[in-house]
Amino acid sequence: MRLGLKLFLGFFLIVGIAAFFVMRVFVNEVKPGVRQAMEATLVDAANVLAVMAAPDLKAGRIGDGTFATQLATAQRRDPRAMVWRFPKRSIDYRVTVTDASGIVVYDSRGQDVGRDNSRWNDVYRTLRGQYGARSSAETRGEGSTTVMHVAAPVYDPADARTLIGVLTLSQPNDTIDPFIAASQRAIVARGAWLIGLSALIGLLMTWWLARGIGGLNRYAQAVSAGEPVPPPKPRRDEIGDLGRALETMRRKLEGKAYVEQYVQSLTHEMKSPLAAIRGAAELLQEPLPEAERQRFAGNIVQQERRLTETIDQLLRLAEVEQHGWLQRRGAVDLAGVCRSLAEDAAPRLQAQALVVDCQLPAQALVQGDAFLLRQALSNLLDNAIAFSPAGGRIVLQVQRHEAGWTVEVADTGLGVPDYARERVFERFYSLARPGSGQRSSGLGLPFVAEVARLHGGRAQLHNRPGGGALASLWLPLA
């Protein structure tokens, strides 16, 4: 199981289980909470009615007096109320009044007059000066529909300490069941939204963490495979600290290996020029004809230039390879760069009787490092000039190709020998220039290939069907 999935499942389980139990507690508390609120309301109403019923109960006209008449009128009313989306069209209260011995003397429904209620908990406790209430089945033997009964003492209007009866106010519990069910549904719905939102937050957090860890993993894999990759994007957390630590470690390790490799390569390439310089210097110490002296002195200067060129090219290539990614990026017009290079090379072209045919669009924009691209294209043009015979023709062309731009530099020289085609992009490998027989540092084409890689492109060199070599550099639009 992947780390991101583990993080998500762990977060969701913690939040989901917590939310489930919290919802369960809320749902279970709704029903008793609503019934307790109803009981509190019944207590208030029962005590108010007890005070109103006291005069008629004392006078013995509780069944047909003012209290009974007004209560009957009230129960016939239609409230036409809309309570929390539920219509209320009737008065659900039932009022019973007992005398001081617990015998029912008034029932708003006219059903239980004369019944002994002294053993019911509401009447029994109220007659003894306590709070009396009960919840029982509406019909004896049936427990599906229950009724809440709340009693209040009825005192003598002339003597507030003399108990003359008990008024019990009743209301079926099923009248509040719709409110309980609606509350429970609302809690469940909001709880589901809470769990869903928590899952979404968990998913986002997991994606954020997994993205950072995945980036580090890909970076470490690429480094272990020897691929030049940019460091992970900076973050202000432990993952960012780890990425910076890995990048620092990579730089130190690669720097050490890089130095060792280049010291070996540079040492190997310097042996031949140094040997030539040493031989010429030893001969110059002996008496020589002036012509021979000038020839050996010129050889020393030539080898010094070769060493200087090798070191300069090596430093440029080392700088590009060490970065591993572009340090600067901006819009570069390849057509404009090619025009500028052709103009700068005009004196050399004229000296060698060469002609450059520029086939360039008005504009060819890519994203990249303008300095590196100019250096790479300059190397291609320099090679074409060096390997072209006097009176030859060089074609410098820029054209759209495969969602990018291709720069092609074609010459009319002898082309690349078969044995060298696979090695032209190797470091320090070079071919003798026609005519002079001199070799370059062998670092120009490796530099071009590295610049192409940094820009997500590619560099190629092959022979033209009609003779000569064709060097190309393809770069993506973005």
UniProtKB/TrEMBL annotation:
Keyword annotations of the record: Cell membrane, Kinase, Membrane, Phosphoprotein, Transferase, Transmembrane, Transmembrane helix, Two-component regulatory system
InterPro entries: HAMP_dom, HATPase_C_sf, HATPase_dom, His_kinase_dom, HisK_dim/P_dom, HisK_dim/P_sf, Sensor-like_sf, Sig_transdc_His_kin-like_C
GO CC terms, sorted: plasma membrane
EC number(s) from the headed UniProt entry: 2.7.13.3
Membrane-crossing residue ranges in chain numbering: 7-27, 191-210
UniProt feature coiled coil, ranges: none
Major location (coarse): membrane
Location(s) in or outside the cell: Cell membrane
Domain Histidine kinase per the UniProt entry, residue ranges: 265-478
GO MF term (any one): phosphorelay sensor kinase activity
UniProt key word Cell membrane: yes
CDD domains: HAMP (cd06225), HisKA (cd00082)
Domain HAMP: 207-258
Membrane topology: Multi-pass membrane protein
Catalyzed reaction equations: ATP + protein L-histidine = ADP + protein N-phospho-L-histidine
Keyword Transcription among record annotations: no
Pfam families reported for this sequence: HAMP, HATPase_c, HisKA
Protein name per UniProt: histidine kinase
Annotated organism of origin: Stenotrophomonas pictorum JCM 9942
